[in-house]
Amino acid sequence: MLNRIGTGLCGCLTSALLVAPAYAGTAGVAPIAPSGMPRLGAVDQRFQSYNIEMIEVTGGRFWKPYRSEPGVQPTQSPRSGSDTPAGMDSKLYQYRPPTDLTNTRLRKLAAALAPAYMRVSGTWANSAYFADQDNAPQAPPAGFNGVLTRQQWRGVVDFSQAVDAQIVTSFAVSQGTRDAAGIWKPDQASRLLTYTRSIGGSIAAAEFMNEPNLAAMGGAPADYNATVYGKDFELFYSLMKQAAPETMIIGPGTVGEPASASDLLTASGPGLDAVSYHYYGTLSERCSGKSAPEAALSEDWLSRTDRTLTFYQVLRDQFEPGRPIWLTETADAACGGNPWAATFLDTFRYLDQLGRLARAGVQVVMHNTLAASDYGLIDERTLQPRPNYWGALLWRQMMGTTVLDADVPLQSGLHVYAHCQRGTSGGVALLVINTDRDAPHALTLPTESVRYTLDAASLLDERVRLNGRTLALSAGDELPTITGIPTTANTLTFAQATITFLAIPAAGNNACRKPI
């Protein structure tokens, strides 16, 4: 591992984070018993995962950042044509050259989150032409809006193997993939599968297409519907079973709670290995969304992910009973994220969503994106970690795959999630989120623990502190040692608007004695 979790005292931690016992004004104290927490279930070992949009791989016009880097002119597209999604304003987008997936810093940061899945898909994947030749065309053929070269896809495979992030993808469905009768032809998908295998790569899971309920936006025929999808899916399913039988088939990959989701699941028949969906709590400001940072810690905002999951659980139980559920694309807001997606404020949503969905049995959650636009875990221009990245790193190091019942009901201001501690037999890890902007909250813990508290000078700060010290890469691009503070069995107080992980290696929880 690039980091180790150590224990040691940090003299710079403010006393507000470590008050024990609870002081006057603290909200009600909840007792907690890590040794007896029962097992709720388990998540995939690659539960916490991420997206790298196809447009990042090919280069093209993706969501324009809210802020421009001073003195830097945007890169101009080297080819003609438009890759602006149908029905969207071109002013919302800005050209990016292909992401350098060989970049050492990017690889170090991604590898620290391993094992993971990396989903290479998105709106632009629906119309990307795979040029299965050494000399790729400069412009896409008719019926496509982008070109994916062999070199670019090899870069995806190499990155995947270097950072231990298995590939999840989808395939082109635009007019260029169809015959004169409008029937989908599997040759493009087949070539990509064959090339992947020829260079020693593999695809762990595949959705047929990205967001079939918004098919026209992604380049599918204007009259695309569930009936056409069903015919396409039948051809896709046959191809996958013949060319890549080891690849999981997941779907439908719809976004939101569309009425068409049930029709799409009916059309795909009982052929899915997992039910997938996409979730965003709202549209971003750039797409005229009306959310505000003042509501970002509210129970209404944080619980929206539960409501959308319930929608898909009902569909799963009806059409694919017993199948796992994967959330294959999510962030704070669609259309590239809100301006505060890059701040500590969104880390509450990021980690709370992981805790909620793990507890509800969701097997995989893929954040959009790793390093593109305002909702990226990593700043795409500087490749510096954002607050959500540091939250993701702590989750990866602390939370094992076995999910426990913390026996602390979610309440306004205090959310507690429990897992077996990663790599520690019998150990328990707690995630304690104080969403209260004004008051501390407390728990009574009968066992010694090691504390890791995230906070920031301001909720809208793009820097985050761990136990009072700002987290940052070293001059040599090394991740810092993640150091906790030992605490005694006592009442632990959690300051307002803070996120705390507690490692309890001596919990002695029998549900955690098996491999985790």
- Proportion of β residues? 15-25%
Question: What's the shape?
Answer: globular
Total strands: the figure is: 25
| Model regions low in confidence, pLDDT < 50 over at least 5 residues | 1-25
The share of residues in helices is 10-25%
Distance between the termini: 17 Å
Number of helices: 9
Roughly how many Å is the radius of gyration?
23 Å
How much is the average pLDDT?
91
- Helix/strand-derived category reads alpha/beta
The biggest sheet amounts to:
10 strands, mixed
Write up what this structure looks like.
- Strands 1, 3, 16, 17, 18, 20, 21, 22, 23 and 25 form a ten-stranded mixed beta sheet that branches. Strands 4-7-10-11-12-13-14-15 form an eight-stranded parallel beta barrel, surrounded by five helices. It has a three-stranded mixed beta sheet with strand order 2-19-24, with no helix packed on it.
- It has nine helices and 25 strands.
- It is globular and about 70 Å long.
- Helix 5 links the parallel strand 11 (203-207) and strand 12 (248-255).
- It is an alpha/beta fold and 516 residues long.
- 22% of the residues lie in helices and 24% in strands.
- The longest helix has 21 residues, at 299-319.
- Helix 8 (345-359) runs parallel beside helix 9.
Write the layout of secondary structure elements.
Blueprint (H helix, E strand, L loop, with lengths): L4 E3 L21 E3 L7 E4 L5 E4 L2 H5 L1 E4 L29 E4 L7 H8 L4 E5 L7 E4 L14 E4 H14 L1 E5 L17 H12 L4 E5 L18 H18 L4 E8 L4 H9 L5 E7 L18 H21 L5 E7 L13 H15 L4 E4 L19 H12 E6 L9 E8 L6 E7 L6 E5 L3 E7 L9 E2 L2 E2 L11 E6 L2 E5 L3 E7 L12
Parallel strand pairs: 1-23, 2-19, 4-7, 4-15, 7-10, 8-9, 10-11, 11-12, 12-13, 13-14, 14-15
Antiparallel strand pairs: 3-16, 5-6, 16-17, 17-18, 18-25, 19-24, 20-21, 20-23, 20-25, 21-22
Helix pairs in contact: 5-6, 7-8, 8-9
